Amino acid sequence: MASVERKVSRIGNSLGVTLPPEFLRESELSRGLRISVCWSLAGNGSGY
After folding, report:
1. pLDDT of 47 strictly over 90
2. CA nearest neighbour of 20 among 39, 2, 34, 33
3. CB within 8 A of 4, min separation 6: which ones?
4. Which pLDDT tens digit goes with each residue over 3-40?
5. How far is CA 16 from the centre of its chain?
6. End-to-end Cα spacing for the chain
7. Phi, psi at residue 28, to the nearest 5°?
8. What is the pLDDT of residue 48?
9. Long-range contact list for 22-26, CB < 8 A, 24+ apart?
10. DSSP state of 23
11. Contact (CB, 8 A) for 9 and 16
12. pTM > 0.70
């Protein structure tokens, strides 16, 4: 499993996380596809 750190950004009136092109190619994700996401908060060791 690969790992990449991303920054939360403003996208329109929302907040979002962009995904690198190589990840999108390898994962075959497409617009409208529902996904499940696991995360941890970088820098302070806490997460969900």
Report:
1. no
2. 2
3. 20, 23
4. 788 889 999 999 999 988 888 888 888 889 998 888 78
5. 8
6. 19
7. 60, 30
8. 45
9. none
10. H
11. yes
12. no
